[in-house]
Amino acid sequence: MPAKSSTIVTALTAAALVAVGVLGYQASASAPDTLSQARKGGHQAPEGHPDGHGKKDTKDRAPAPAPVPAASGAGRRIVYSLAAKRVWLVGPKGTAQRTFAVTPSTVSPPRGTYAVGSRSVSVMGSDGVAIEHVVRFAGVSGVTVGFSAAVDGSRPDPGAGKKTGGIRESREDGKAMWDFALHGTKVVVVP
């Protein structure tokens, strides 16, 4: 083989090895945590799966999310449970995309079906706290009821004696609600 073709073959081989190395690195960087733990010698059994020693691996496992209330209708919707103080963002197939705890307002909407009527990126709450990602869906006795997150992360004091309609959520949950709850989105309030 002439020296020039040998040099070309060597260069192509080196380029191929670099490409394989880069692809391998990218694949390992995006691998699920369970794979990277296995590579490091750790072991995490899938949820509910015996770990090979007759025990279930429960370390670092979050509790199962609360199921969507059965009597909350069908289709894409927001479900708000008054008793559970919890919200579910439910996709079109009836599966919860997210669920989270909330702090109820002092004025609660009656159970029933509503729709998102208005939204505000940021305003001053009726309790004097700056709030963001406001999603309004009902009115009760002259009080507007909706979901919001306090910019300072605070939760309202239910014993303050003020009539408020703000159902408070964390800022992270408020952002998820904002992204999900477009104008007209169905809101189902259950006991």
From TrEMBL:
Biased composition (Basic and acidic residues): 46-62
Signal sequence extent: 1-31
Keywords, in A-Z order: Signal
Region listing for Disordered, in residue ranges: 34-70
Name recorded for this polypeptide: L,D-transpeptidase
Organism expressing this protein natively: Streptomyces kronopolitis
